[in-house]
Amino acid sequence: TSVIRLADYRPPAWTVERVDLAFDLGIDRTEVAATLELVRQADEPMRLNGEGLELLELSVDGRRLGEGEYILANGVLEIAVDGDRCTLATRVAIRPAENTALEGLYLSGSRDKGFLLTQCEAEGFRHITFFPDRPDVLSRYTVTLRADRARFPVLLAGGNPDGAGELGDGRHWARFVDPHPKPSYLFAVVAGRLERISHDYTTADGRAVALHIWAEADVIDRCGYAMDSLIRSMQWDERTYGRNYDLDVFHVVATHDFNMGAMENKGLNIFNAKYLLADPDSSTDDEYRHVEAVVAHEYFHNWSGNRVTCRDWFQLSLKEGLTVFREQSFSADMNSAPLKRIEDVALLRRAQFPEDAGPLSHPVRPSQYSEINNFYTATVYEKGSELVRMLAGHLGRDGFRKGMDLYFARHDGQAATIEDFLKALGDANDADLSPYLAWYGQAGTPRLTAEGRFDAAQRRYRLTLRQRTPATAGQPAKQAVPIPVRLSLFDHSGAALPLRLEGEDRAGDTERTVVLDGAEHAFVFEDIDAAPVPSLLRGFSAPVILECDYLPGELAILLRHDPDGFNRWEAGQQLAGLAYDDCRDGNVDGSALRAWTRALADLFAGGGVDDALLAELLTPPGEIELVERQAERDPERIRIARQAMLRALARRIGAEPLRERYEQLRAATSAALDAPSQAQRQLKRRLLDLLALVDPAGAAERALAQYGQAPGMTDRLAALATVATYASPSAEEPIAHFRRRYDGNALALDKWFAMQAMLPGAEALARVQALEGDPAFTLKNPNRVQSLLGSFARANPTGFHRADGAAYRWLADRLVAIDALNPQVAARIATAFNGWKRLEPVRREAAHAVVAGLAARTDLSRDLTDILARVAL
Ligand code: HT7
Ligand code: ZN
């Protein structure tokens, strides 16, 4: 397969000033007539992308071209044109109902009831019409939709409405004009039977905007929370970044058939229903937060992505990393900032760190790709956001705002690069941010080593910081990157010390940021009376792995005393890592295990920690993160050791206090969505799981009762998972009950499939295979495939990594079947093989045979082939 390289970037030879599109919509066959006003930029033929299009007509400046006058090969239409401008007209036919890849124009739902919609990012527009389908071609769009009124009563496209009417024959039309030049990947249309909820919004700069959220009739009453989130997002972007919405209408549409979370098409966002619908009976607290975050994310793209877009797909993180950062800041403002940071860092460690350490590792700005769809990754999104966070931290709140203002003003209506972004932020602040470019070009998670030496005679503490980034796939040599380290020093009573660095005349605050910008640097702190405990990387000030030889007692001091919730949790995570090492090594009386359980038992009994933070503190790193602490990776042993540490914790707290606290929380149970109620549910879940390790019968009885009485999905699903994990025979009845209760509710059933797919142990494969026989299971729906196969392969280490390799072979077989329907989904699931090389020998051999067998096939999609080729290396 061919490789696209950043180094080969060349500006477009022809750009498109205006596009006029007319759709004659039909489920089996849609005709698209396109008129493009093209302008020459270089002395080259005109080249347009087009895939899977039946070409019906082609003309240049009103003259129809015959067969010898163009070349159509390998998805490119090439025409040699004289002159500097021309009008190109094409008419093509496409087949939406046959489009199972969900890229381009496709059908969501059934033939008789479903609706038509588009997905164009990254390269879907070329499945709709011939066009220079690249993000640096920005054009003004006019779109006319024509369709049968009874079958397609609602017709939507991005931009402002510009007329509608009847055509006779029961057909109607609607036209839309988008005044903002945009790249083709932001184009969208939707047509079908949809209901809506609406809200009249006035922007801070006085524009009246009609907000409409559209969904099929059976779920329209679950869109209220999304509307609420949208309004808050719009207000937040006005307040925080001075950004106003810029069209007269804003549409949001929900679909159950979508390859990703959502899509920021200009004026017409399209959402996977999973991230738009929410109601207490079928959504968990986590899902409510996801809806809020994804609605905000897509809305924020209107500026970071749409008004200023990407020059090429290598710059993807320019819009995605920045927009994730904006979304994270919004969620932190709407909810609890420390809890949000805990959630984000946990996700980074669970999803991005393993990616960065394995064969699929790539820089936040990759230098080459063979399939761009495979680069919508945790690295581009989550690590990309961490890079923006470092820049924002470097500039400070006001400096960052000034920088963003300049970035938006300077590049409005343009397709920009990461260099442009750093330059604008820097220029607005007289700062040189170019050293941060190294972060964008280099894969791998830097290791930050910290070594402290206390000199009693000099009353000094010398903190030596060193960095090293391990070699990654195809990138052996690494350079130093700027690492901002926010830090405090604590004495042994838990008090934070005022900080004075060598050479400074006065002590400053108790917290400050030092930047390690080379391989090694020593920072010397003065006026220190006793060896302090350093609290490093506060707020996770850089996306690195900290290696510091803490004694368990030192971490326990931070866990008990650090006033910042995030750092308290972080100290707990570090200490839990050491406690895990004790359990792994069979050291049941290890000092770390004792320090961890004692500190947490004291915090539990002391009552000084709020419910939400306590629930987080009682959750050690998961099995996937703990893999890193294992030389020979055997998921079974990891689980056993992790369960042992949790059992030790439950014993230390005591079964009776666990029961008592659980009962108190149960008595206070409600379905309310406020933060304290959510925290109570979260803590209740942790307590039930801990109780199951020391009083299985008591926990099962309580979980069954909780399932029966739950006022909402959070409690119901948590109870079901606990019973199914710890008392599986008693789970049969409630599992069957849940299935009946939510029959027909796709999102609730997805959770039912996922919960069972994640139940640990070698029996999981048989369970998953049985679930494939459920009438609601289908390989055609991405959410369903993710919930059963994705959850099993990526979130059930003991189930998927069976020593006999049976699950690997089974997944390989399914990947081939999925790939024939939807390559993007197959490729994403295949990333489950990412870490096979570091498994213990028996599993490694089994996985290798399967990966090599798949990689040798020549009948798979480019998406899946690309992942397999990299994983197999
Ligand atoms: N920008 C969106 C990306 C996206 C996408 C990419 C490839 C294939 C399908 C897709 N659907 C959406 C998502 C986002 O807002 O980040
Ligand atoms: Zn995005």
Explained architecture:
This protein is α+β, with helices and mostly antiparallel strands and 873 residues long. Among the domains are: 15-193, Sandwich (Immunoglobulin-like); 308-441, Neutral Protease Domain 2 (Neutral Protease, domain 2); 447-542, Immunoglobulin-like; 748-873, Peptidase M1, alanyl aminopeptidase, C-terminal domain (Zincin-like fold, Alpha Horseshoe), CATH 1.25.50.10. The chain contains 26 helices and 31 strands. Strands 6-5-9-3-2-12-15-14 form an 8-stranded mixed sheet, with no helix packed on it. Strands 17-18-19-21-20 form a 5-stranded mixed sheet, covered by helices on one side. A hairpin with a 5-residue loop joins strand 17 (195-202) and strand 18. The longest helix is centred in the middle third of the chain and has 34 residues, at 378-411. The protein is globular, with a radius of gyration of 28 Å. The mean pLDDT is 98. Bound molecules: (3S)-3-amino-4-(1H-indol-3-yl)butanoic acid and zinc ion (ZN). The site of zinc ion (ZN) has 4 residues, from helix 3.
Oligomer: single chain
Strand order of the largest sheet: 6-5-9-3-2-12-15-14
Name the poorly predicted regions.
none
Shape annotation: globular
Kindly report the name of the CATH homologous superfamily of one domain: tricorn interacting facor f3 domain
Bound molecules: (3S)-3-amino-4-(1H-indol-3-yl)butanoic acid, zinc ion
**Secondary-structure-derived class:** alpha+beta
CATH domain class of one domain: Mainly Beta
Largest sheet: 8 strands, mixed
* Fold-level CATH name of one domain: Immunoglobulin-like
